[in-house]
Amino acid sequence: MATKQLTLENYEEEVENSSVPSVVDFYADWCGPCQMMKPVFEGLSKEFEGKMNFLKLDTQAQEGLAMKFEIQGIPTLVFLNKGEEVARHVGYASEDMLKSKIDSVLKSM
C-alpha cells in the first residue's frame, strides 16, 4: 500500500473511523528534511500494511489540519488512534528509528 494524502475531506474516514492506528507525515514540498523522509515513510508503509495507515499532509495545502495539530516544525509525524494523538516525532527519522517508534505505538494499542 502506498501512502495516501490526508485532507479535511477524508480525515474522518482515514483517521477517526480507521480500524488501525494512523501515522500522519506533516510536510511541505520545499522542506529538505521532509524530502529525505519521503522514501523512509513510503518503504515502511509497505512493511506495516494492514497494521497502520500511512498518511501525508501537505501543511501548505491543508493549513487548517496543520493548525489543529499545532504543527510548529516539519517534518512532524503524529501517531493517532481513532483520532486521538498517542505519540509524536518532530524532525527527520531514520528507517530504524521510525520502525522502532511504530512498533512501540502498535504494542501500546
Task: Describe the structure in your own words.
The protein is built from 4 helices and 5 strands. It has a 5-stranded mixed β-sheet with strand order 1-3-2-4-5. Helices cover 38% and strands 25% of the residues. The longest helix is centred in the middle third of the chain and has 16 residues. It has 109 residues and is α/β, with parallel strands linked by helices. It starts with a strand and ends with a helix.
Topology of helices and strands:
Elements: E1 4-5, H1 11-16, E2 22-27, H2 32-47, E3 53-58, H3 63-68, E4 76-81, E5 84-90, H4 95-107
Parallel strand pairs: 1-3, 2-3
Antiparallel strand pairs: 2-4, 4-5
Looking at the structure, what is the overall shape? Answer: globular
Please tally the β strands and state the result: 5
Span between termini: 22 Å
Broad structural category: alpha/beta
How many alpha or pi helices? 4
CATH class value: Alpha Beta
Strand order of the largest sheet: 1-3-2-4-5
H and E order = EHEHEHEEH
In CATH, the architecture is: 3-Layer(aba) Sandwich
Q: Could you name the CATH topology?
A: Glutaredoxin
Throw out a few tags for this protein:
five-stranded mixed β-sheet; 4 helices; Glutaredoxin; alpha/beta; globular; 109 residues
Compact description:
This protein is α/β, with parallel strands linked by helices and 109 residues long. The chain contains 4 helices and 5 strands; from the N terminus they run βαβαβαββα. It has a single domain, classed as Glutaredoxin (3-Layer(aba) Sandwich), CATH 3.40.30.10.
